[in-house]
UniProtKB/TrEMBL annotation:
<dbReference type="InterPro" id="IPR016047">
    <property type="entry name" value="M23ase_b-sheet_dom"/>
</dbReference>
<feature type="domain" description="M23ase beta-sheet core">
    <location>
        <begin position="87"/>
        <end position="185"/>
    </location>
</feature>
<dbReference type="InterPro" id="IPR050570">
    <property type="entry name" value="Cell_wall_metabolism_enzyme"/>
</dbReference>
<dbReference type="InterPro" id="IPR011055">
    <property type="entry name" value="Dup_hybrid_motif"/>
</dbReference>
<protein>
    <recommendedName>
        <fullName>M23ase beta-sheet core domain-containing protein</fullName>
    </recommendedName>
</protein>
<dbReference type="Pfam" id="PF01551">
    <property type="entry name" value="Peptidase_M23"/>
</dbReference>
């Protein structure tokens, strides 16, 4: 897909650059994670935002196909060894709760729901876009619950329209505030939900179905 051919609006209302955004590492290679009780969301929150404050950045970013160590915090991911889900399929934008999130491409609401529970998405919205006859779906997770009020399936949005807000914990699935942004070519039978983390045995399928969201975000990693 030639993402550069698309006209899109910045998802956070401004471009993500190295002036305002810090790349974050949640792999096992980041030994600082060993000092954090990830099951304590307040402690996890302080760990994330201390990094942003120290760097003088508004946003943290990362995660596409990242093999993460942070999912040990929730039983949602701790299944049998061969099915352990720890490979992230979207991009996370970590920022303060209440931050507005804008529509990158023209589209309409496909589905939405509150995926409640510790470690889940919390409030989630999925948009459907038309790329010259080819459908593309975008998922926005860990939102404020109030963003679901009055929302309707089929509601249309233009690029740059306000869609939602980054939610606070615990209503956002009990995570430090961030937006989970993910793209999918095919939703299958999912409604208001789609796996955001994959097991290594399923990665080939999900990597094909979930293109790199940075095609739209266009943050240049160093």
């Amino acid at each position: 897909m030639n993402w550069n051919s698309l006209n899109f609006s910045p998802i956070m209302g401004e471009k993500l650059t190295h002036d305002n955004t810090l790349s974050l590492d949640f792999t096992a290679g980041n030994q600082a994670l060993e000092t954090v009780n990830l099951s304590d969301t307040s402690e996890f929150d302080r760990f994330v935002f201390a990094q942003l404050e120290e760097a003088g950045k508004k946003y943290g970013i990362g995660g596409y196909l990242e093999k993460r160590a942070i999912y040990r915090r929730s039983d949602n991911f701790l299944t049998e060894a061969e099915a352990y889900r720890n490979i992230h399929l979207g991009v996370d934008v970590w920022t303060r709760a209440g931050a507005p999130v804008f529509v990158p491409l023209a589209g309409k609401v496909h589905s939405f729901q509150d995926n409640s529970g510790f470690g889940n998405y919390g409030a989630t919205i999925i948009l459907q876009h038309d790329l010259g006859g080819k459908p593309l779906f975008s998922l926005y997770g860990h939102l404020a619950l109030r963003d679901l009020d009055g929302l309707e399936v089929g509601k249309e949005f233009r690029p740059g329209d306000l869609l939602c807000h980054v939610g606070p914990f615990p209503e956002n699935g009990d995570w430090p505030p961030h937006l989970h942004f993910q793209l999918m070519w095919d939703l299958g039978d999912y409604w208001g939900d789609y796996p955001g983390v994959a097991a290594e045995k399923d990665l080939e399928f999900y990597q094909e179905n979930c293109p790199d969201p940075n095609g739209l975000l266009r943050f240049r990693y160093k």
